[in-house]
Amino acid sequence: MPKKLKVYEIEKEKQVERFYDRIAEGYDATHGLRVADAILEHFLIKSLPNGEKLNILDAGGGIGRFALPLLQKGHKVAVSDISQEMLKSAQKNLARYDEASFVKESVTNMTRHKEEEFHVVILMNAILDYCGNHLKALKEAYRVLKKKGRMIGNVNNRLIYCQNHELIEGKYDEFRKSMSTGNRHIIWADQKEGHMTHEFTLKELKRDLEITGFKIIKILGPFNLLPKYRLDDINNKEEYIKLQIEYAELQEYINNSQDFFFVAEK
Fold first, then answer.
1. 129-133, 158-162, 250-254: lowest mean pLDDT where?
2. What is the pTM of this model?
3. What does the H/E/C string look like for the chain?
């Protein structure tokens, strides 16, 4: 790798680490019980291999939101994250589970894990968008998965994110650039510093899963009815979740979805 590119990737990772260290303290309150995550949890659990106790890597697992239901079902879960502060929250949230372990690392460099160590690797809540080099992360996930192991996760839909930001704000040159490259620099809420993110087209997601060796099992549209950030304000949340689960399976609406949910096999 050229030296300049390596330095650039390291700085991107540092930006992500600093960002999540800063917001970790309040993350449980804002992200602990989101309707969007309940929908993702449904598809995560549904997509697991059947009939066995699994060894699972929750890569970029943050506060342990998706590790929790896996541990409750008796699986062994290693939670990794680049942010030490997020890991502290995960350790607190999962303290009662002996089958939980924790490691500080980037999803692009998981050398603390052996080859073919895990039955499942999960990359939830757009970790591939934020990691700086998603192809490296996919290769690492492939390396640590057992043969026939599964990778499960979700990524941002480039079209929807660029529509909701650059396009609606009338920044048409930025819209063209973001749609062309997928790369956008984001600052959320009252943060002074954000980080680079990479949004995906459906075609790109399929291509990159396949070129890193994965066989695609399914790709769904988990938020193709309403934007995921509006779901906590809707009425009758339980009925809505059922409705969205039904529609997520319909491929004709997949590009309406704010995220793509994927399941792939080594």
1. 129-133
2. 0.90
3. CCHHHHHHHHHHHHHHHHHHHHHHHHHHHHHCCCHHHHHHHHHHHHHCCCCCCCEEEEECCCCCCCHHHHHHCCCEEEEEECCHHHHHHHHHHCCCCCCEEEEECECCECCCCCCCCEEEEEECCCHHHHCCCHHHHHHHHHHHEEEEEEEEEEEEEHHHHHHHHHHCCCCHHHHHHHHHHCEEEECCCCCCCCEEEECECHHHHHHHHHHCCCEEEEEECCCCCCCHHHHHHCCCHHHHHHHHHHHHCCHHHHHHCCEEEEEEEC
